[in-house]
Design brief:
Layout: E1 8-11, E2 16-21, E3 24-30, E4 34-39, E5 44-50, E6 77-78, E7 99-105, E8 110-117, E9 130-138, E10 142-150, E11 156-158, E12 160-162, E13 165-167, E14 175-177, E15 182-185, E16 191-194, E17 205-209, E18 215-220, E19 225-232, E20 236-241, H1 243-248, E21 261-268, E22 277-279, E23 284-295
Antiparallel strand pairs: 1-2, 2-3, 3-4, 4-5, 6-12, 7-8, 8-9, 9-10, 10-23, 11-22, 12-21, 13-21, 14-18, 15-16, 15-17, 17-20, 18-19, 19-23, 20-21
Length: about 300
């Protein structure tokens, strides 16, 4: 799927267009330093491609763009809860329709801000006044910031993640450093474990690393590059790949799709929402991930 050759629906500037991806409206950025696409459905980053490089973001060939279903790949927004802490899984932000709040083009980057507010659709599952913004900066780096504002009169807590799917050459040849050694293994009943500091993936993985370093690096010899991940506002880094059996069980992922993706997520993890990050009235919290690359 070539998002950059899709017909323009409406142009905001010579560098920023509205396009349709299936039934979902999206914003396409074409900047001298990099290109990017973000869907209004879920404030979901679909692509980030530095000039002259392979895309850093993996998007499933079989992803559904019906304006209702969560999109497989990209950077889903998991909020106001992560995983199955409540229903629907990973919260409602990733299947909500966000609105364009602001945009700007500079010599260094393009900046897009999307916004979501509480309404009658969110109140049954999340009875808290809030305003959420996603700040999307496309340049030599991709900066994605989820900004959460408590606009009510009482504190509340949340968990969440920026569920980044990285585009890799071959899962069998990559390695990851900077995750730390301590992790919770979701495939082993949440058992805390530890292992050497360099991760190689040879089977299904679903881990919450509880002591990640400031910089996580995915070493990808097949594409001849390192992907550098710098997170902030998080308390953990989640690493996930469903492997062959998991991919075959998903209607929106090719059977061999697991070979070219690895999720490395900026997450605020807690076993329950009540144990999550607290946001006081009139306060704001930010969860951020920054992606860049360098040749090996």
């Amino acid at each position: 799927m070539n998002l950059y050759s899709a017909p323009t629906d409406y142009s905001l500037t010579k560098s920023i267009d509205f396009i349709y991806v299936g039934d979902s409206r999206a914003i396409r950025v074409r900047h001298p330093k990099a290109n990017g696409v973000i869907s209004l459905h879920g404030a979901h980053v679909l692509s980030y491609q530095p000039t002259g490089e392979e895309d850093l973001i993996w998007l499933s060939e079989d992803a559904k763009f019906d304006g209702k279903t969560a999109i497989r790949g990209g950077i889903p927004i998991c909020w106001p809860w992560f995983a199955d802490a409540a229903s629907p899984a990973h919260g409602f932000a990733r299947t909500s329709e966000w609105q364009l709040h602001a945009y700007q083009i500079t010599q260094e980057n393009a900046l897009i801000t999307l916004q979501l507010k509480d309404d009658q659709g969110t109140n049954p599952t999340w009875p808290h006044p809030f305003k959420a913004r996603l700040l999307f900066e496309v340049g030599e780096e991709l900066n994605v910031t989820l900004e959460i504002m408590n606009i009510g009169g009482h504190p509340w807590t949340f968990t969440g993640a920026l569920h980044t799917y990285l585009n890799i050459g071959d899962i069998d040849t990559l390695s990851v450093t900077g995750l730390g050694q301590a992790f919770i293994d979701k495939l082993e009943d949440g058992t805390p474990q530890a292992e050497p500091a360099t991760l190689s993936v040879a089977s299904a993985i679903d881990r919450i690393y509880t002591e990640p370093k400031e910089e996580i690096v995915v070493h990808d010899p097949t594409f001849g590059r390192d992907i550098i991940i710098k997170n902030s506002g998080h308390n953990s880094a989640v690493v996930w790949n469903p492997w062959q059996e998991g991919a075959q069980a998903m209607a929106d992922m090719p059977d061999d799709g697991y070979q070219n993706m690895l999720c490395v997520e900026s997450a605020w993890y807690a076993p329950t929402i009540e144990e999550g990050q607290i946001v006081q009235p009139a306060k704001t919290y930010q969860l951020t991930t920054c992606l860049s690359s360098r040749p090996r």
